[in-house]
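Why does residue order matter? Because the sequence determines the fold. Keep that principle in mind as you read this record.
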Amino acid sequence: MPGTVLLLAASPVGKGCLVDAASVLPVLAAVPPAVLAGTDTANVVELADPLEPQAVLTRLRAAAAAAGPLTVFVTGQLQLDRRQRLPHLALARTTPSTVRYTGFPWHWFREELRLRPAGTTTVLVDLHADAEAWGWLRGHALECGPTVAVYGRVAPPPGRRTVAAPTYMKAVATILRSGGRPAVEQLHQAALGRIAGEGEVGDLVLGAAAWVPPQGSAPRAPDRPERPRPQAPDGPVGDPHAAISSAVRAGNHADADALAARWQEASADAHGPGSQEALHWAEVRADLAMFAGDAERSCRTWMAVAAARLAAGQAVDAPAVEAAVDRAHHQWGRIADTARARELGPALADLRARVPGRRQGALDHVRRQLRQLQLQS
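Structure:
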């Protein structure tokens, strides 16, 4: 089965740039696609200094939907938004005051890759953090979800008026160009060995099984223990996400939704209907409706997820709340039946008024569309 590779290199233009991210792309592009992916054949998508987070999201979403192994190479710099204090990959137009609107939120990687079958997705990163993001990393892990292997390094801010080089990713590319494709753990360790030999120290090292803080930093708070997954009512399902993804690829959308519904019911019975476990499966079902082309059902489900999270006391600007409303909004715009779209419009407008999201003018957009739909009645 062919693999998919996404090459993403991004950094701000001007004095806010910490790393020359795009300089790694020619080196990576010189590696045969199959070697980058570790498969017999592969498709490669390259994003060099993208301007808009939505453009990155579109490419990431398409890559995540592809069958077969997915490898994502991310080079750039991390910055925190001033409102939520969450890490973002800075893009070409990002400044410290506009991170929330011009950067790519790191949690979007987790959101888009969460339906990937376990063991099929690898993310390799070479990142430089500004001072605030570096402080955030002392107490938080930079990850992409439980089914995604993340390898690489995050470097501290370079010296003043210094633009760093993405030496880890260049080392990865150089190793791959030398012939052969070592296992990702071996590739990671070999790249670390190369940059350590060049005198680079103090980085945070990311690995599938370990996170090593820099010397002198406070240890990372331990992760919350993961609750055991409830058993599906009709017996064992080794990896339900893999089974669901397989059903979707085969076009068996009803079977995929039925399996997710059983897990949602089991999670609700075990932890409560408003629990993170149950809401996760509701989100899976919203995505499955989208894959099946049922925009109305997807919109309704995302709205219900957002309402449940708000009712549970989550903030209106919490990432999971914003994501649910954004996706409901997107799916609403794809409803072909005018009457159904008109029916859902007022509830979406009310929800959008509470959760304006990151895109300016989102509420106005809903109201304009709703007025047009009402004129068509």
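The radius of gyration is 21 Å.
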